[in-house]
Amino acid sequence: MSKTIKITKREIKEDKFTTFMLQAKDYVMERWVYFVGGLVVVFAAVLIASFLKSGAAKNEQVAVETYNRAMSELYSKNYQLAVVDFKTVVDQYGSTSQGEMALFNLGNAYLQSKNFPDARATFERYLAKYDDDKFFTASAIAGIAACLAGTGDVAGAADKYREAAEKFADFQLAGEYYYQALYYYVQSGNIESAKVVLTKLNKEFPGTRADRDGLRLASEHNIVL
After folding, report:
1. Is there a domain that residue 153 lies in?
2. Residues with Cβ within 8 Å of residue 143, at least 6 apart in sequence
3. For the domain that residue 193 is a member of, what is the CATH number?
4. Residue 168, CB half-sphere, CA atoms under 13 Å: how many?
5. For 89-116, what is each residue's pLDDT tens digit?
6. pTM for the whole thing?
7. Is 63 helix (H, G, I), strand (E, B) or coil?
8. 13 CB-near residues (< 8 Å, 6+ apart)
9. CA angle 60, 62, 64 (to 5 degrees)
10. Domain range for residue 63?
11. Domain-embedded: residue 124
12. Secondary structure of 31-59 as H, E, C letters
């Protein structure tokens, strides 16, 4: 049997192709035992604890294998297959350490396949359930923005990209989110909001690619601060 490899959060954050990652969490399962007395109780408790530990380990292994297969399918742009496997992890093994990232990447797989309604619903579900990592929280908000843009709601997309940037200003992609907000504000004709975002982009991310792209976009549309 091939050895299962768990992908760390650091490795996925550094992955130039996906920017996706997993924060390891302890798997907790509640157990109960009927106490009938004496050594029988001790023996029964040991057997049940052993059984539960074995079951949890098996679920974790299946979840890891299914999640890794789904990620491979996502890399290969087999989005429908990725959706099926991510859903399996979410629905059947959601309490394992793979559950959080399976839900996030389910939204990503929907987004990549241009299933914007399901992608948005999945990202919203992720945000409602998890908020412990600003990298993925910001990315989920940006994912919702992309869904809005995909359905033609450019004003809504601009607001969501701005929300992602402002909520996590020290996040490494905040500058890109500001640029996306600027772009969609321009597309929606909201020049005043575009100026506000451009000012923040110039001030907080000077000299970056996002800043240069923002200045070029402003120049093309005669936007002057």
Report:
1. yes
2. 107, 108, 111, 119, 120, 123
3. 1.25.40.10
4. 21
5. 999 988 888 899 999 999 999 999 999 9
6. 0.74
7. helix
8. 19, 21, 135
9. 65
10. 1-118
11. no
12. CCCCCCCHHHHHHHHHHHHHHHHHHHHHH
